[in-house]
Amino acid sequence: MKYTIILLLFSCALWGQNDTTYFNSARQEHLLNLRKEAIKNYTKAIKLNSKYSAAYFYRGCVEFDSSLFKQAKNDFSKAINLGYKSIQYAYELRGRSKFYLKKYKNSIKDFNKAIKVDPEFSNAYQYRGVSKYYLKDYKGSIQDYNKAIELDPGNADIYNDRGNSKFKLRDKVGACLDWQKVVDEWSIYSEDAKNSISKYCK
User: Fold this and answer.
1) Among residues 92, 87, 121, 84, which one has the least CA distance to residue 108?
2) Gap between the Cα atoms of 35 and 77, Å rounded
């Protein structure tokens, strides 16, 4: 009798493992930075529900954080194709995944799509600017950085990146002003800016 009760409890525990249960477990593991475990549970959720767009999106986020950019790109694509509700974030993160895969032109297409959905999405402008920088479109990158700063003036990285683009255009004064702003206002994030100032602004 005791064995039967234990078996029944075990069976009930298995029946309770649905796609949402696995998804919620994965979310908690993701927040705790348990990336391998999170990926496993997102995958289990997807196996039970192949149209679970949020599971693809968040599995892509974990893969992105783990530098698994090809896998992340594929999962963001799947989330987009399934109509993930916050689709601008999927476009932006797929664009960033493509950037790290050195597909700069293709990444810009995704940032364009993110901006079309949400014209106030500062990250999309910022990272589109970074892609343009790597394509040596320094003027275009500065335009995007300007818009990103307008939307998110407290982001030190944008000022640092804009300084890099200005320097490429031989605007040494403008570059040094941007780098100095990073040092003055965000010292914790200023290592790159300090190095640039040391090399080019003395």
Assistant:
1) 92
2) 20
Question: Is position 77 within any domain?
Answer: yes
pLDDT of residue 3: 42
5 inside domain: yes
Domain count, the chain: 1
In this prediction, residue 13 has a pLDDT band, given cuts at 50, 70 and 90, of very low
Full-model pTM: 0.89
Radius of gyration of the chain (CA): 22
Look at residue 189 in the predicted model and tell me its pLDDT.
79
| Domain-located, residue 90 | no
> Does residue 13 form part of some domain?
yes
